[in-house]
Amino acid sequence: MSKEKAATEKKQILVGDGTWFVQQPSGESYLVGNKCKVCKKTFFPKRGVCPNCQKDGTLEDVRLSTKGKLGVFAVPQVAAVGFKAPYIIGYVDLPEVTGIFSPIVGFEPREDAIKKGTEVELQIGKIAEDEQGNDIIGYQFGPVKGKKGK
């Protein structure tokens, strides 16, 4: 392979693996939060100290559900750096924790193509591009397998 070709090949940059999510060799993926052993509250992203009871040393890592419901969302018409407008960004409520901020994929990027309460499922995939055109890979939510987005 020539040096020019190697320099222009697109890379995939995985962000958050092991910190925000785990992607197993089997292809199964899940988000990682933490839960307080004292007050039993669950958090995502993980915290260092329980923000609810303010106790230190009480948080343990927990595997979060992969399916949830879309809360509030927006369809930006002007792109943030690395994104192509329009796209959907929103908050997803899982059984354990509410308000996970995430890109929403697999639906037409129109406000009438999706609604609050839509069931969504965790996916690991391209969320943006960096300035060199490399794919940034991270967590996102999309239609539940077997259900089609509009």
What do these coordinates show?
With 150 residues, this protein is mainly beta. It has one domain. Helix content is 4%, strand content 40%. The protein has one helix at residues 3-8; strands at 12-14, 21-23, 29-36, 42-43, 59-63, 67-74, 88-93, 100-104, 119-129, 135-143. It has a 6-stranded mixed beta sheet, with no helix packed on it. The protein is globular, with a radius of gyration of 17 Å. The relative contact order is 0.19.
Low-confidence regions: none
Tally of domains: 1
Largest sheet, order of strands side by side? 1-10-9-6-7-8
Question: In percent terms, what proportion of residues is strand?
Answer: 35-45%
Class inferred from helices and paired strands: mainly beta
Distance between the termini: 42 Å
What sequence of helices (H) and strands (E) makes up the elements? HEEEEEEEEEE
Query: Helical element count?
Result: 1
How many strand units? 10
Radius of gyration: 17 Å
Largest sheet, described in full?
6 strands, mixed
Percent of residues in helices comes to under 10%
List keywords for this structure.
40% strand; 150 residues; 10 strands; mainly beta; six-stranded mixed sheet; 4% helix
Topology (elements, then pairings):
Layout (H helix, E strand, L loop, with lengths): L2 H6 L3 E3 L6 E3 L5 E8 L5 E2 L15 E5 L3 E8 L13 E6 L6 E5 L14 E11 L5 E9 L7
